């Protein structure tokens, strides 16, 4: 099991940038070399586009990225990888990528590359002792409710809720005003954020999360041996029962939901600081920020952070590995790497690259630093049980989205169903406790 949460917590939002005096890596530009890639529409960041444009201008290396709607991306990526028709580069969230596909089967390990020595958070791309990606950021920050400040102010909500009852009162007030309180798209990775954040918050400490994960992953305990896990799901399901969620959550795309949030049709969406920064880039006129919502299962008010980040994996079938190595060498220098953060500040994963943190939404470091100083920070649950990552996308994430429409499932039912998936998966792996 891989957690290393203390190291990652120290990296996140440290605000300290290390300047590099190394010269850019020289790449000989002869005849144009063309690479291909695919990326989610929500992560086709202008900074990445600028890096691609500079690469073509300076080095005569082009990367033709296919930009795919978020709700179509996973299926298309899996189909193309399985049929050996995938592009050279796959853009995705690490280590969430490993929940979708097996990196050992499809991707090239990058452990021997020189730029790996400058990586701040190598844990993000690690799988069974090898590293399968180039990540731009050391972390996506922390999870919370992104909300439209103008909508809150327009409806007389001047203070953020401190208790679950106060949160429900805010939702009722928005609902009465004709505003949908909570946004939920059909992309299964969005609803699961409630649970991966909530389960860690319910346990409350890194030590408790690690103990829980160790027992789950060695078959010393089942998910429903911990009632607080089902309580997290039940509280999520209550949002639907109370009518706080958009009715079309089973069909509406993530991109459409973001547009509604920016326009004020919807007030809040559960996400992360990385998502907030992306929305601000796409909708610069929207007045958005983030807060840690009160919940009934966390009386310590703990913040869940994300040791995950956007990056690129290299398709094993590529015929352009030498060129890709040159690209990553270049992108690991400030001349290129700084471009990524010019329009969307963040926390670089490569030493010497400037994350432009001074331009960041001021609430992000303010919130994180407050919780960090009090020792109330814990990683999202997906990181503790990442051995089960290959299951998530096709099992429990789907159950979270489907459960509200079924009406007869509660948190215990969902976890019992997932436990069967876990037992089968771990038995087939011959894991300790299942042999």
Automatic annotation (TrEMBL):
Residues 1-22 form the signal peptide. The keyword NAD does not apply. It holds the Pfam family SBP_bac_1. Keywords: Signal. This is Carbohydrate ABC transporter substrate-binding protein. The gene is msmE_4.
